[in-house]
Amino acid sequence: MPADMQVNEYFSADYQQARRAFLDAALAAGGNVESFLNPASEQGGEQLFTDIALLGPEDAENILVLMSGTHGVEGFGGSGVQVGLLREGISGKLLPDTGLVMIHAVNPYGFANLRRFNEDNVDLNRNFVDHSQAYPENREYDQLADVIAPRRLSAYTDVSSALSVLWYRLRHGSARLQHAVTHGQYAHPQGLFYGGHFATWSNRRLHEIAERYLAGAARVVVIDLHTGLGPYAYGEVIVNDPEDAPAYQRAVTWWGEERVKSTIKGESVSAHLSGTIKMAFSRMLPDTEVTAVGLEFGTLPPMEVFKAIRAENWLYHHGGPDHADAIKIKQQLLRAFYPDDELWKYKVWEQGRLVVEQALVNL
Known about the structure:
single chain, alpha/beta, 42% helix, globular
């Protein structure tokens, strides 16, 4: 066990505690804070916010953007990294031409209510498509829709679903199964990984933040913090660019071939997704050099994570908050994305700090 267990204090037990820790740390670091009130509210009726902290010069030529909570419940890990960086003096490591924009709880509804999806059941990392055009089809998801998001949960449906998934994997392979399930779909509003049919509140706020605080920069690096995929506590830098793209080459130069993986090449723990936030930043900032990556920390085995997401989605749409297993299902989801383990938190913090510092050095 690491000797410095102060790291454990960077991480919080719920959204409100995480928000207070972030705001306190940002203000103590001399940051300017702006808060965006989400129109949804958590079950206890408390207000929900996406908060941003701005450090460094307002007219910075280079800007690092560090985001947490795109997938709600995944925000616990990302928030811990953000709070730790602020408390340990990240503002003092900014060069005169470099700014830092921290975005805390991109999806505050999911963060507060222990959901991966937002108040519209939308996966924000599938929502950044052109909603005026026809939506991408995912016919493979259509074939598995009742297995992926069943209307009933029972021992029978668990066995039936497991057999259906196993049969699909045997016929088509694990990579194609992952793509079918997680790539993104726009035809099943109560299903998993639903991209939505309009730009969500969080989508619009990120566009606003980009226009207001990033458009004047020459170079922007975006690190979107996630949990749930990959080896336990290991952080993979995920890019959605091909190997010959400048953004991919910059990422490999900064963070190394061992840590940087491309979804296009098929080497990442993530499938190649549609409508991601990372790719949207290049469209939002057409005159800026953008390097946008995800930093994904592993937790539990993939099938356990999938079953936790599926059970919580069933609870949200069919079981209801008063269901006898509601607390158990919510805790199962929480642990799938935020293990109750000090060593996991320490490793997440150490790798998160390293990736951020390497980005600042290369900026």
